Request: fold
Amino acid sequence: MIITIDGPAAAGKGTLAGALAEKYKLAYFDTGMVYRAVGLQMVLSGADLQDQTKATEFAKKLTFPEMMKLSAHKDFRSDIGGQAASIVSAIPDVRSALLTMQQNFALNPVFADGTKANGAVYDGRDTGTVVCPDADLKIFITASSEVRAKRRFDEFSAKGINTTYEKVLSDMKERDERDSKRSAAPLKPADDAVIIDTSSLGIKEVLAKVCSLIDALK
Reply:
C-alpha cells in the first residue's frame, strides 16, 4: 500500500505520516529531506541558492548516506534549511535529478534498518501529483497560514531557535507563494486527493479520519 500526504509547511504532514507508518507497519519517506539536503549543501558551500547549475550538481550526486549525515546538522530542520529547500525545489533540473530516487522507493520500500516493508507513507509537496500518482490513497493536509506559523514558532522556541512569530509568518507566506507558483510541480492537491483542514483539529482527530479511509480500502 502506498499512501501520500502532501501539504504546506507545518500543516501536520510529518506527524500524521509518522503515526500512520507506525500503525500500519509501513515505511516512511519524508521527501522534503532530499530537498533540504541539497538546500543545506548550497548554504554550507556558500553558493547562491538561485544558482541552478550548482544546485543540480549537488542533486545528482546526493546519496542516502550523505542525506542522513546532513540531517544531523543543526540547520537541516531550521527555517534556514526550510527556506533553502523551498528555493532549490523550484528548480526543474533539481526535481528531475531527485525524482527517480523517490519513485524507486515505492517499488522497493524498506524500513530504516533496511528490512523490506509492505508499503510506504510519503510525506511531501508533490507526492500525490508527481512522485506517486497511482498511490492507493492521497491526502492533502492544510491549515491557515496563521495557525501553521504559530505551530512552527512554538517548535522553534522549544528548540531554542531565536526568532519571532511575525518573521515565521512572513517567511511562511513567502514560501507558500513560491511553492504554489513554481513551474515545476506546484503545491496543489491531486485531483483525487482527500483534503483535510487541520486548523481546528488535533492529531488524534486527523489520524482517526485518515485511518477510516485506509481501513475502507482493505
